[in-house]
Amino acid sequence: MENIVQFESVSKRYQSGQTFVHALRSVSLEVPKGDYLAVTGPSGSGKSTLLGIMGGLDSPTSGSCVVAGKDLGKLRDGDLTEFRKTFVGFVFQAFNLIGSITVLENVCLPLRYTGVSKKVRTEKAIDALTSVGLAERARFFPDQLSGGEQQRAAIARAIIHDPELVLADEPTGNLDSKTQEQMLTIFDGLNKSGRTLVVVTHNPLVADRAKRVVGIIDGEIVEGYDGVASLT
Questions:
Q1: Which residue among 41, 53, 158, 199 has its CA within the 20 to 30 Å range from the CA of 137?
Q2: Closest C-alpha to 181, from 192, 191, 195, 171
Q3: C-alpha distances in Å from residue 73, one per residue of 30, 55, 62, 156
Q4: HSE value, Cβ hemisphere, 13 Å, CA-based, for 85
């Protein structure tokens, strides 16, 4: 099966004062097209760094990250921005919605500078909100929504441009169990529609719904990983 993501000996090192912090250590990983991968491990193990490099938000110190045939470390800034705008959808734990504009306007943001007309942006935003069961809240402001509704709005924003790859960083971290189940149902649907999902999580319920689970400890992939509970 075709790989949509391929890490080859990826390492990431940050300098903190006079010392270096190794976030990732020679990580090799393949993510086939259509996969639903959960990445788990202790806090500070390198999970979010892995996701950031995969989405072109960060770059490796060494090694290569190839996504959809593109070596992200070799792309020019403009090409990397275009890759993020068209190919990847990001979902974050903190929602990152702008409070001064409506839910509809928040969801439209990824298309605002792509040349898509306002009419088409609005139509696509309503479609995205409908897909997450939030169309009736389109004209609300974020602070008028519950936490679960805000996360659904964030998912709608992440998928408005029909990305092939959806990256989610602890997307259920601030949600109660009922709302978590709603999120997981949405993720199931996204994966069934053909999108590739990579989800960083501490939540065993998320890991159980994924097709595969990868563990990371101290920046290294854990071989023979057999459950979230052993890492949290």
A1: 199
A2: 171
A3: 17, 11, 9, 28
A4: 15
Domains of the chain: 3-222 (3.40.50.300)
Nearest to 128 by CA among 160, 104, 158: 160
Percent of the chain at pLDDT exceeding 90 = 76
DSSP state for residue 202 in the 8-state scheme = S
More confident residue, 84 or 17: 84
Nearest residue to 21 (alpha-carbon basis) of 220, 222, 221, 219: 219
220 phi and psi, to 5 degrees? -125, 145
Instruction: Read off the pLDDT of each residue in 180-194 and give the average, rounded to a whole number.
Output: 92
CB proximity list for 141: less than 8 A, separation 6 or greater: 99, 100, 101, 102, 103
Find the distance separating the first CA and the last CA of the chain, reported in whole Å. Answer: 31
Q: Is the pLDDT confidence value at 49 over 60?
A: yes
Question: Would you place residue 176 in the very low, low, confident or very high pLDDT band (cuts 50, 70, 90)?
Answer: confident
pTM: 0.91
